[in-house]
Amino acid sequence: MKITVFGRASASRATLLLGVAGLALVAPSVAYAQEEEELAEPAADEPGSGNEILVTATKREQTLQDVPVAVSVTTGETLERAQIRDLKDLQMVVPSLRVTQLQSSANTNFIIRGFGNGANNAGIEPSVGVFIDGVYRSRTASQVNDLPNVSRIEVLRGPQSTLFGKNASAGVISIVTEEPQFDLGGSVEAGYGNYNAVVLKGYVTGPLSDNVAASIAGGWSGRDGYNKDLATGDRTNERNRWFVRGQLLIEPSTDFKARIIADYDSIDENCCGVVNLKRAPSPGATDVVDALGDLPDANHPFANVVYNNYNSTNDIKNWGVSAQLDYNIGPMTLTSITAYRNNQAVTAQDADFSSADLIYPLAADINLDTFTQELRMTAEIADKASILLGAFYIKEKVDQTGELKWGTQARAYANALISSLSGGSQNITTLEATLGTLEGNPSKYTNKFFAYQTGNDETFTLDSEAISIFGQFDYEVVPGLTVTLGGNYTKDVKDYTANIVGSDVFSTVDLVADGNTAIYAQALATTIGGPMFLNLGRPATQQEIGLFAQGNPAAFGLASGGAQAYADANDTNAAVNPLLALKPLQYLPPFLNVPNSVEDGHVSDDDFTYTIRLAYDVSPEVNIYASYATGFKAASVNLSRDSRPFAADAAALGSAGLLKVNQTFGTRYADPEKSTVYEFGLKGNWGVGSANVAVFKQEIAGFQSNIFTGTGFALANAGKQSTFGVEFEGMVEPTDGLNFNLGVTYLDPKYDDFVFSAVGDLTGTRPSGIPEWTVVLGGQYEVDMGNGDALYLNASYHHESKVQIVEGLPGYLAGGQAAAIAAAAQFTRTVNDVSASITYAMDSGLEFSLWGRNLLDDRYLQQVFDSVAQPLSISGYTNQPRTWGGSVRFKW
User: Fold this and answer.
1) How crowded is residue 575: how many other Cβ atoms within 10 Å of its Cβ?
2) Where are the extended beta strands (E) located within 256-384?
3) What pLDDT is recorded for position 183?
4) 0.90 exceeded by the pTM?
């Protein structure tokens, strides 16, 4: 049986629009959603290909050709032949999608058309919604799992609130797995690869009775880490995860069906390695680290070498149950999807990323409970109209605890930094005595600065509840011309608490006030010892000042007033107040807990979004559509130690007496995102080839930006971010068994308004991390070996043009915004990833495969950030090196 990887509808259009006969070299194993009335049905014994694939992107089962939505579809056959193991690999075949995993195994970020966030901060709902068999997965920790028995993955681009109920302002990834079958069947698979990678998977399905079928899938995958930790002797970026998933399908009649799913998966891995990219100017923090331990060589970031003084913890448990009920009543279908999910992620990391014991530990324990309920009705009316009405409800609770503590060498490390920053005038012991004396108690701070196991103990909670009423109506006005109207009303309420108990003593010291005292004392001594009074030719001593005050109270008052005025005018002047040089070492300023008398820890939003679309069949081979859609994502809450009061609340907090020493301001939450998309699409299907083109302008007002600052996350709204883009996906099948696929995405993004970013005003600049060009080129050749056997050759190439990785680095802001931007400008990324596989499939069901990913060993940086507790140093995450392996699979 021939398996076609990609849709025919995409490449013929390439021939028409681009006029390139050689467009046989076309796109990934993906198909673009289209609308066309006359389309041949696939043969009964052959799965649909290209635009003949059945999808549920519009919550109705239709062929891809009949769906006027910007959606790419990857079939189960493509996933299998291309050895796509999890969602991180999906970007190899979908050019408008980017997937990254950074800080831990629990955090995966999905970006569509350059828009998307949500990883690393449990208070942020992702801009890209992920659904598995209709069940919303609200956080990235519950989205990182192997893909068992996937039928297809649909990637919908742009806001989808009128179809999915749960608002997703940037797009949706909808994963559809196979239902249990009433015929006995199954598969087993075993694989082995480099880094001692082992994969074991199995699947069995069959009938329990005439009306009940069941299936169970399970698997385990393990791999040594590709980074060698020269401090612990172990390896990082390993893989150790397993899953089990069971389903029941109950069909007592043709009008009723129930599908019940229960799953559990576990991850227990040492991840993720961080390398040093730039050492602080000498004498700097990294030089101090070198004296206490080791750092990766900044000149060789891709040596697969890291240093940690303890292994990372990534212990993730994820389970859930769901029930989908479908009931046909005449032309209507009623559907109910009820689900409960729990996710717990325990993580710990050596956040200084060196073998020195500076931080022990940076840890978090996050428990997430989610209940969702969706009700919807779909109906076809007189072959002229279709209607979808639905309601979606979600209730979620996040409980998060964590800690960030100083390690055994933190005090020695701080001692060296204090000496360097004070020009050698202070060390940690003399500084403790100096500051204590200025505050009237010389022993107040003795042995307390950067003491072992001092730092932060953190507790956050978030209770959220939202309901959406949504619907969509399609009507064929005249033959070939269909108008679509859709709407969604969402009400979202969040209540949150943030409680941090800080024990980092140095961060509580008011260096401005203490500096004021020191400046006053110095100015007073200089004035009284000067020619106006005692004319000593030097500053007066304390004894001399006391005697002068007793004998000349009026003159002393005049001198004291002048000295105080001078101190008040200069206590924030670093040239006069030498203590200000030490402010960068106050990493953990006191935290103002929420709720309080000014901040109630409550945020509530509601919004109406809508879609208007016209689709027209120009001919049986060509159709076009134009759409206007709006989207909405509710406010996100900053559940990190960088959660800070809004500056607008400063006066009220001051009046209430709530302001802390060294009070900093920022955001507690980011206001909602609101998106708008204008899109035009042209699609064609000519049998041997197909092509799809979409041109769009997408704008998100209030885009929620989440930037790592070194110890937490700065969550803020960009005033407006917009992107103009063009997407092409196509396929051609020049001969039976041979097809080529091409996907090209062009993006031109801009911050139209982003005044208050973590590195200052970025208005008018290009957002980081969004390549101008993304190209995915692939092909498959099937060779009939006779006797029912077949050989499959599969290859793909993924390219992303050069892009700056981050806009700026907040750790350099002391030198101004220009310095923060310049520090980041040197770090860019270009991607050239080649993957291939070869499979020999026997008629008996036995298959042998060899595969390779990133065959060119193309190395690049995924992300860069300010090194934790190492001023002016820069760290980053690297991508995965070349991997290869083989597998044996048996199907029956």
Assistant:
1) 7
2) 256-269, 275-278, 305-306, 313-329, 332-349, 359-381
3) 95
4) no
